[in-house]
Amino acid sequence: MKTINTINSLAIFEKVASTKSFTKAAKEFEISKAHVSKTISELEAELKCQLFNRSTRTVELTETGENLLLNCKKPLQQLEQAKLSVLNSSQELKGKIKVSLAGLFGEQHIAPIIIQFMKNYPQVEVEMSFSEEIVNLIEDKVDLAIRVGALKDSNLITRQIATRREFVCATPEFVHKHGRPLHPKELVKFNCLQGSAQSWNFKVSKKLYNIKPSGNFKSNNARSVLSATLGSLGICKLPDVYVDKYIRNGQLISLLDQYVQDSVPIWAITLEREKSPLILKLLIKEIEQELKKGKREV
Question: Which of 85 and 227 is assigned the larger pLDDT?
């Protein structure tokens, strides 16, 4: 039994480490924050070392904690996969899943994974709904939503499954005519092409820095923002899935690279993780593994 308790403790430790939050880890496991805190304290006592540096705002791994995470993460993933494999072989996998996706990212990265998943499980029915709007999982009868970026606090179950990068871009023609911003605060002098985001996030001296973009063009459709940018109308801030090839072929110039956030989280959102059908859990795991296959970011 002690081995099982240790595995449970390490699983909670891994979740705190990956989310950098006792609260988020508690939400993932549907247990209290106090129980998470007690488990980590007991694990530190057992190992006779400190695993986290805690403050009122942040939870960061110590060097010992980093080493433990490195050694336990893969075995925990293997145990989870073994569990799913047993369930897979012991249950008939079928059912209906409604998935909410957004934009080109959903089309290019998520939809192909779901289609391949359906080939592997031919008795599964999937309805894919594409919308930039935040859906109500209960009212819209959605089983799984894939969303990118910061999430508002909610009672939904969220799981970070990957990350992606965003870029601030403009055409060489626009830069030649209007110059380039050297700091995010200088964007107020430029025509910023607004997408669905209300603010643009940057990192300045390791701190989050927000600006509200303003300009003569606004659209909740990222492709139209890209078209306006390629037309030299102004500066955009878009994910790599839209702009990467244009940066590589020279049609766009990447700006403010040193201030753009390293990565943006990608989330799988469901109602109740523990009560989710096995087929939905398998789909989420498949999406996570495929997105992370070969590289950390997509």
Answer: 227
